[in-house]
Structures are given as structure tokens and as C-alpha cells.
Amino acid sequence: MRSLFFVMLWCEILSEVPMAAMGFTEDPQEKLTKTFSLAPFHSLEIRGEVEFELIVGPKPLVTVETSRALFDQLTVSNWWGAATLAIESGLRGPREQGTVKMTIALPSLEELTVSDHCSGRGMWPGKEGTIRILDNSTVDMDLEGTDFTVDTSWKTQVILKGHTTKLRTTLRHQSFVDTQKLTVEEASIALDENSTFESGPVDRGSGTVRHQSRVSLEKAEGWEELVLKEDSVKEIRGAAAQ
């Protein structure tokens, strides 16, 4: 009886104490912003459903804005000069809703790989580099430099602007690259598997277009070394306008 009396008394005391709602302090949809300072790196991989902006800055800083739940799925690492920013989209459940936004400030960069439904834009930090865009990703990038290599595959969409001395572009698996606002002195292209390349001002261009791919040129001059194979198509926009 005495034990029962103390149990009843304790329950009555608890009923008088106000209790906070469970999960209020750790709402999975709460928006958080965090800035990561990384050691210098030469290559960067951005993977997953991330919206990013690349800007030029004095040192590597990554500012991430997303929900509390998605922070649990976030990877920010730098291993011997190879940095990774990723959201593992395959692990996302009903709690992990919303978007992951990143602003990436860098003084320089040699290689960038974007994949797995990622989208981004910005200014390339440097005069040359290699850009790989894969797996249904989209990129809108300003280039100002001397030598760039762009490699795309699996239904990617890329827009390039600015100026470069040399541009080497490889497109595969229904990729689309628009360089109408990019001035290039020497361009080399390789298209395959129903891909599309739209060229802007080019002094000298060459390459191979294969397997029902399409190349759209501002003018025919300078592209005498362009080879078309397997039902591929070359269009001259200036001629169509006339």
C-alpha cells in the first residue's frame, strides 16, 4: 500500500509540471546555416541534389544552408587536396525534405566534378581547369582563361559564358552544351549518343560528331575539320537566319 501511495503521489506531482513539446528543439525541418573553412584543395566533387554557387574568394569557404535533418546526410571533407561536398540523396527519407544550398568561395581550382542531379552556377576561379558534369546535372559557368576541358554525360545540361583560348568538349549520352556566349579561339569537340553542342564565336574548330548527335554553329568558317558520322547533323544558325 505504501508503494502504491508513493506512485500515485509522484504521478500527481508530474501532472502539475508543464512539459515542453517533444522534438521542438530538434525540428527536422528547422533551417540551419553553417560555414566550413577548408584547407586549400585542387579538386572538388559536388554530389547529390545540391544547388551551389561558385565564387572567387581569398580562401576556401563553404557556406551551407539546409534543414537540420539534411545536415545529418551531408558530407564536407578535404582529403589530401581533394574536397567532397555531397548529400547522399539515396539515403533521404520522409524527414529529409527540402533543398541543400551551398556557396563555395575559392581562390583557385583545377578540377570540378558535378553529379547525381546537382545544379550550380558561378565564376570559375582560375585561368584553366577541367569540368565534369554527370548524371542529370546542370551547370551555368563563366570562364575567363586560357585552357578548359569540359566532359559531360548522361542527360546533363551545361551553359558556358565568357572567353577562353582553348576549349576541349566531350559530350555523351544525350548531353547538351551551350557555348553561344563563350568566345573561343581554338575549339575541339567530340559528340556521341544523341548529344547537342551549340557553338558561339570560334576562330578554329574541329572534332567528330557521332550517333545522331547535333552541332549548331554560328558560322561555317573555321570548322572545316568537323567530321559527321552515323546520321549526325550540322546546322549553321547564320544561314538559317538569312
Quick structural overview:
The protein is mostly beta strands and 242 residues long. It folds into 2 domains: 29-112, 3 Solenoid (Pectate Lyase C-like), CATH 2.160.20; 127-242, no CATH class.
**Class by alpha and beta content:** mainly beta
Helix content estimate: under 10%
Q: Quick one: biggest sheet?
A: 18 strands, mixed
**Could you tell me the radius of gyration in angstroms?**
26 Å
Write down how many β-strands occur, each being a DSSP E stretch of 2 or more residues.
18
List the secondary-structure elements in sequence, H or E. HEEEEHEEEEEEEEEEEEEEH
Q: Helical stretch count?
A: 3
Give the rounded overall mean pLDDT. 87
Total number of domains: 2
The span between the termini is: 102 Å
Measured by DSSP, the beta-strand proportion falls in over 45%
Commentary on this structure:
The chain is mainly β and 242 residues long. It folds into 2 domains: 29-112, Pectate Lyase C-like (3 Solenoid); 127-242, no CATH class. Helices cover 10% and strands 55% of the residues. The chain is built from 3 helices and 18 strands. The chain has an 18-stranded mixed β-sheet that branches. It starts with a helix and ends with a helix. The model is unreliable at 4-24 (pLDDT under 50).
Salient structural properties:
mainly beta, 18 strands, 2 domains, Pectate Lyase C-like, 242 residues
Ordered list of secondary-structure elements with their pairings:
Elements: H1 2-15, E1 31-37, E2 43-47, E3 50-56, E4 61-67, H2 68-71, E5 74-79, E6 82-87, E7 100-106, E8 111-115, E9 119-123, E10 128-134, E11 138-153, E12 157-171, E13 176-191, E14 196-199, E15 202-209, E16 214-217, E17 225-228, E18 233-236, H3 237-241
